[in-house]
Amino acid sequence: MKNTGRLAATLGAMLMLAATAACNQSSAPVSKWNVTDHVPLDQFIVQSHRGAGFLAEENTIESFEIGWKHGTIPEADVRTTKDGVIVSFHDKNFKRVVKDASPELAKQGVEDVTYDFLSKLDVGSWKGDAFVGRRTPKMSELFEMIRNRPERGFYLDIKTVDLKQLAALVKEYGVAKQVIFTSSKPELHAEWKKLVPESETLLWMRGDEARITKLMDELEKTNFEGLTQMQLHIFPNKDKKSGDALAEPFTHSREFIIKLGERMRRHGINFQTLPYTDDPTVYATLLDLGVQSFATDYPDVTMREIKAYYAGKKKAAR
């Protein structure tokens, strides 16, 4: 009888927890605007971070091909070599992506070497044996790969490059409508739009709600000049000691994300988020909050989850 009583008490507690969870889920804030009502699935934009995210080594021709294969727009980080060649490379130095780099080389970066020297560096081995021998491409090579192929494009994340030189290269290859100028510096977007007005732009932002709100207020004074897309970096919200998830799933509250999306859409700006997590459930949560685009390190997972979300909404509407 005692064991039966304990079992009943345990079951009762479990039911109460389940009921509480269901109540919390049903009361979770959801945006009145949903992407499935406004954006066809084949027009949903997904950016593959640094080429193909974690699926390959970054910023190489091979990684960009993987990004396109998954139906995404790869991101290329843009830098300029010592002799003026614009290339795709993320880091300030070679320490991380050149395996077994000498102490001297590890301190150097793209801007310190010629393209001839850079082109000989293996930037794939750090990722594993399957990526040995991968090289840093010129942006001219990458633009050639998308020329006359409108289904392909690039996000160009600006690191160190002369904008006039980059604009000239974009125009030379006729890919202005296929590139999305990307930076965290608003003033660069306005400058770029004067050089290549037909190009889209993306402002990426990282910071707490107060910082983001202040930036939005400043940009609104200029009517978000030169800006067509906005990306918010999203992080899981966890207890610092235990690592347990908190009631708000992200470090930005759901209400804040909803209101930020509303503000962006009022100005005709595509609202994109980059979730820094491998949890596949975040995509549905963020779509419910009014997000209309993603950047990702997991393009295969992201595309799968987006398709499932659209299918679920279609089924529910029947």
Helix and strand arrangement:
Blueprint: H1 2-26, E1 45-48, H2 61-69, E2 73-80, E3 86-88, H3 103-107, H4 115-118, H5 139-146, E4 154-158, H6 163-172, E5 179-183, H7 186-195, E6 200-205, H8 209-220, E7 229-234, E8 236-238, E9 245-250, H9 254-266, E10 270-275, H10 282-288, E11 293-296, H11 299-317
Parallel strand pairs: 1-2, 1-11, 2-4, 4-5, 5-6, 6-7, 7-10, 10-11
Antiparallel strand pairs: 2-3, 8-9
Outline the structure in words.
There is one protein chain. α2 (61-69) links the parallel β1 (45-48) and β2 (73-80). This protein has 318 residues and is α/β, with parallel strands linked by helices. The chain has a single domain, classed as Alpha-Beta Barrel (TIM Barrel). It is built from 11 helices and 11 strands. The strands form 2 sheets. It has an 8-stranded parallel beta barrel with strand order 1-2-4-5-6-7-10-11, surrounded by 5 helices. Strands 8-9 form a two-stranded antiparallel sheet. The protein is globular.
Kindly summarize this structure in a few lines:
With 318 residues, the chain is of the alpha/beta class. It is 38% helix and 18% strand. About 6% of the residues have low confidence.
Main β-sheet description = 8 strands, parallel, barrel
Which strand-content bin applies to the residues? Answer: 15-25%
Span between termini: 50 Å
Write down the Rg. Answer: 23 Å
Strand order of the largest sheet: 1-2-4-5-6-7-10-11
Principal-axis shape:
globular
Number of domain units? 1
Number of strand segments: 11
Q: What would you say the CATH architecture is?
A: Alpha-Beta Barrel
Helicity range: 25-40%
